[in-house]
Amino acid sequence: MVFNKAEYMKEYQIKNKLRIKTRRAKHRIDNIEHYKQMDQNQYYKNQEFNIQRKSKYARDNPDIVLKCKQNYLAKEADVLETNLQKVRYLFHAWGLVVKRRDGLKCTWCDESDLKKLRAHHIIHKIYCTKEEALDPDNGITLCHECHKEQHRLDRSLS
Predict the structure, then answer these.
(1) How would residue 6 be classed by pLDDT, with cut points 50, 70 and 90?
(2) pLDDT tens sequence across 105-136
(3) Which of 111, 131, 67 has its CA nearest to residue 140?
(4) Residue 67 domain-assigned?
(5) Domain span holding position 98
(6) Is residue 103 in some structural domain?
(7) Fewer CB atoms inside 10 Å of the end CB: C or N, the chain?
(8) How many domains is the chain partitioned into structurally?
(9) How far apart are CA 12 and CA 120, in angstroms?
(10) 117-121/139-143 β-pairing
């Protein structure tokens, strides 16, 4: 019998899923100072690499990417109890209301290039009710860079 490392690793991961998860969490806690002191340049270098990697994947697999986007919109449609076309329209209209309310500029850095502006949900639309998701008070206007930074901060807090 020939030893197949891939099959062995797959079986090991299935059998020890909880053990692996707790070991990773413990490692993260034990080395929290290391993760806090990570070089910012390395973080952004990795971020640029991931963006290039995701772009290449999107170019190579447009059907899979489209299916993922449709699944995401379907979740939003379930929250809002409507269909996909209405979801797109509702969030587009919500974004215009939020941007106009904020004076068509980023609330963090005062960027006013309309192509760079994004409407951001303070409480994510999947985690709130239909009324909260479409409430302009649950949104702020951010430029593309500030929007990325906001999501990075959201991930670091969770």
Answers:
(1) confident
(2) 999 998 888 889 999 999 887 788 878 888 88
(3) 111
(4) yes
(5) 58-158
(6) yes
(7) N
(8) 1
(9) 42
(10) antiparallel
